Amino acid sequence: MLGEPIPSNTEHAISVSLPTWRSNVGYEENEDWVVSKMMTGFFIHPEIKALERTILDKGGSLEEACVTGTAQEVSNSSTNEDMGIHGFVELRYGRNLGSAAIQQAKLAIKQRISGIVCPGEPVTGENTSLISTRKLSANDVYLFPTGMSAIFNAYRIIRSCFGSMKMVEFGFPYLDTLKVLQKFGDGCIFFGDGGEGDINQLEALLESGERIAGLFCEFPSNPLLKSPNLSRLRELADIYKFVIVVDETIGNFINVDVIPYADILVSSLTKIFSGDSNVMGGSCIINPNMPYYKQLTDMATDILEDNYWAEDVIFMERNSRDFASRVFRINKNAEALAELFLKWQPTIVKRVYYPKYDESRENYERCRCKEGGYGGLLSITFSSPDHAIKFYDLVETAKGPSLGTNFTLTSPYALLAHYKELDWIAQYGVESHLIRISVGLEEPEPLLLKFESALRQLVHSGLPEASN
Prior knowledge:
GO terms for molecular function: cystathionine gamma-synthase activity; pyridoxal phosphate binding. With about 475 residues, this protein is of the alpha/beta class. It has helices at about 20-30, 30-35, 45-60, 75-95, 100-115, 145-160, 175-185, 195-205, 230-240, 250-255, 295-305, 310-320, 325-340, 360-365, 385-395, 415, 420-425, 445-460, and strands spanning about 5, 15, 140-145, 165-170, 190, 210-220, 245, 265-270, 280-285, 350-355, 375-380, 400, 410, 435-440.
């Protein structure tokens, strides 16, 4: 149902149901028939609003209110009662650690991450600056309330170490990463394609004397699933003395090993590391085998504070215990779904974006772990906008923002992330009617049948197919 949390009856659900294309537009246009029904989503949680009202009643004024807006006042007593029951079940039967075990839970998360992310063999070459082959420890992992907090604090650490210098965003990223680099600091050089041509341009820029402090990239990128050539970027970093920050949220620790190329590795633990879509978190790893390790860790010690909420830690620790086994299952489902969509090219499906079938696959394979797959995210474009809209309305999956959930989640990504800048993203190959699918743990056969059924209905909907 429109506006319900995904999963349903979850007090702190990460996603919210926007079941039709029109409802996504209505959300972006702040139309009351959508926002008045939203119980969760991109607004201040009702409990925080209640705290705000209490503080204001005791001595504040309306001018001091945090935020205003229709959606932010959403509260439903019957729904909250259901959510309370659901929360009790999770706490009672979900094998949560007790509230006294917060520090143990944080350590468990850090050890879980450091145990998976292994530096392996160092990158070697004429210009390498690697100084050791020390393994990661839990002390190299820093936890944050969200993935974007991890990215922002990685940026803070670099800027504090290097001073006033520009940053580079390499490849088309999730929008907030680019906004952070553009809004704060001393400017951002944006290479939106992220291919070999952009590396050539970056190299020429550096050769001309331009200095940068850090380069941020995703592996692979969201939503086009492109994989940058980390080997070449590492060579440039060693020559021109800058830091590489890799966001491996989409690839994830199990599938790809990018730590040999990264000074800092960031991830949104909100996504597949948690999977349950009921808690947020982020991590930042400072690579002990890179030349700026001591400067970065010393700065992190000076400026970072531990503000990861205790209850979030408890839920994140519990959710992530079966992280690896979930990844393998989701990999298989996603690969099978990508193959299904490829069968419908070029009649109604225009393009399938998936690391296995991207022109940058060689870069992905260079970093793919021995048992790793191609991840659980794919994006689809259709032969016309009308086909995309109709397909979205037809497919019978959960529909809303976020990714990495244990259940399949379909989203009109470009519409939600870039509604007011669709012309701008088009120049980087992101179509306005792109649909992104985050694949879950469902049994393969019924999952594929849901999508095949939507595609077959689309064929019989009367919309013209693309001509060969």
